[in-house]
Structure prediction request, 241 residues.
Amino acid sequence: METPEIAGMRTIHEIGSHAAAGFPVSVNPLRRSQPLQSLPITPRGYPYPYHAKEMHMPQPRILFVIGSLRKGSFNQRLADVAAKHLDGRAEISTLDYRDLPQFDQGEEFPAPPSIADAREQVSQADAVWIFTPEYNYSYPGTLKNLLDWLSRPLDPTFQDKTTVLTGKKVALTSAAGKSAGAGVRGKLTEILDFLKSDLLGRQVGIVLPGEAFVTGEYEPSADDVKAVELQADELLDSIGK
Ligand SMILES: Cc1cc2nc3c(=O)[nH]c(=O)nc-3n(C[C@H](O)[C@H](O)[C@H](O)COP(=O)(O)O)c2cc1C
Prediction:
């Protein structure tokens, strides 16, 4: 029998047992490493490379950005909770932006190497997760400096206004004083919306316990851990991995 073929789509007839059903199976030819006819078939009738468990799917990449440069940062402590929860499900890295130059519009093109590298890390990530303190009901200046660098188009002619943050999934978490970082999250939400990032709806704001400021130690409570873990799960779901 002749095999009907539409661009990129072959009938299940080609892969064997369900020929009679005649249901089409979408096959991405670019991902196929061996002739379709020779592939084993899963119990549901899909060729093995399309069966999730059999595919060696790369893990999603999540780039952490810690708004505090402080050694012993409580926001870093929350990031550690998130990393632990995502262990084995996502590739986590943390952006080191401590030594980035101050933004200078005269130095944009070509971008300084450290800026190009930061942009590349953001670009390669499936999501960016910002954990930040609140300074004076707003963002730390160092974080704003980073966002200003990231907010600029890569095209020196500005015909293409795309930036590495355009459409980028971004999650926001803050550990702060009594406000739970409502100020910093609100202002970052404004900036990231303006930059057309894709903000995760669930944000987490944690009121740090008073004794943390006395002892310098912060052990997240069970509720704090749960809040961050829920956010981590939602972030992972939202990037479809
Ligand atoms: C300059 C400065 C301003 C601050 N302003 C606020 C504030 O407006 N609201 C708040 O909740 N905490 C404020 N704090 C407290 C920080 O949120 C708190 O120190 C937090 O632990 C810092 O985060 P980190 O532990 O990750 O460094 C401020 C701290 C500093 C140093």
Observations:
- Residues 222-238 form the longest helix (17 residues).
- The helical segments are 74-86, 113-124, 141-150, 182-194, 210-215, 222-238.
- The CA atoms of residues 81 and 87 lie 10 Å apart.
- DSSP finds six helices and nine strands in the chain.
